[in-house]
Amino acid sequence: MFSFVQLEYIIALDTYGNFKKASEHCYVTQPTLSMQIKKMEEELGVILFDRSKKPVVSTEIGRAVIAQARTILTERDKLGELVDVHQNEIQGELHLGIIPSISPYLLPLFIMELHQKYPRISIHIHEMLTEELITALRKETLDVGILVTPIDAKQIMTHPIYYEDIALYVSPDHPFFNEVKVSIQALDGDEMWMLREGHCFRNQSLNLCQNQSRRSDERRFSFETSSIETLIKMVDLQGGYTLIPEMVIGNISPEKRGQVKWIEGPSQMREVSIATFRNFAKQRLVKVLEETIRSVLPESMLDRKEGQVVEWQ
C-alpha cells in the first residue's frame, strides 16, 4: 500500500513537471523520488506520468489519481487542525500569496502583529500576479492568497477583508492639480501612467478611463513596470498622472500629499479579499490571518460604504 509520502511525491512532480525540482521540493534525492513514484505506479498497475515529454506531464488516469491524492492529504491536514483546535493551540505553516499592488502597503502593517500574537505560526510569503496566485492555490502550493476581487475562477473561494478608494497622483504641471476633485469623465489614458500587463490594478485603471487612443496607448505602455512607486516617480519626472490605491497615500511624503486628488462623485473602490482553494485544510490559520489584518486597518476600510467596486476582469 502506498504512503502519504508517495502521495506528496506525485503531487510535487505534477506541480513542477521536473524530477530534479520535485525532489528538491521534497528534500530527497532524485533517485529516491523516482523510485517511489515508480513503485506506486507498479502497485496501482497504471502509468501516472508521461516521462517522454518535457516537462513531465500526468496521464489521464494520473490526473485523476493526483486529484484524489490532493484530497487525501487535505483531509490528513484537517485531522491535525482538529487536534490543535481541541488543544486550543494555534500553530502551523502557512504559505501566503499576495499581489504586488497590495504587498508593499499591507504586509508591513500586520506581519509583526501576527508574529507577536501567534509565534508558533510559520508564514511564508510569495509575491505573484493574480493568475499565478490562482494557479498556485489550485495546485495547493499556496494555502491562501490576498488579491483584488471579484474574480471569475472556478474552485476558488473568496471573502472580502477590506475596501480602499482609488485616487489620483497628479503632477503639479497638470490641470488636475488645481482641481479639488477630478471628474471620472476627464480621465484620459493618453496622460496616465499604468502598470504593465498582468496587473489587476492596470485593468482597473483602464476600466476607469473614459478617453483612450490606440496611438497613445502604444506609446505610453511601452514603459513597463510592476511598481506603483515607480509610476509615482514617473509622474514627478515626466508629468501626467497615475491612479493609486488608498493605502499608497501613507507612503507619500507630506509635502507631496497635495498631489493626491480624489475622484468626483461616488467612491471608486477596489475590493481586497482572502482567497482559498475549495478544499483547503488550514481554516483556523486563515481565520487568524484575516482577523489580524482587519485589526490593523481603519474601521472605515472594513466594510463597503457607498461607492462602486471597480472590476478588473
From TrEMBL:
One of its GO terms (molecular function) is DNA binding. Residues 6-59 form the HTH lysR-type domain. One of its GO terms (cellular component) is protein-DNA complex. The keyword Transcription regulation applies. Signal peptide: none annotated. Gene3D superfamilies: Periplasmic binding protein-like II, Winged helix-like DNA-binding domain superfamily/Winged helix DNA-binding domain. The keyword Transmembrane helix does not apply. Keywords: Activator, DNA-binding, Transcription, Transcription regulation. It comes from the Bacteria. InterPro entries: LysR_HTH_N, LysR_subst-bd, WH-like_DNA-bd_sf, WH_DNA-bd_sf. It holds the Pfam family HTH_1. Belongs to the LysR transcriptional regulatory family. This is LysR family transcriptional regulator. It comes from Membranihabitans marinus.
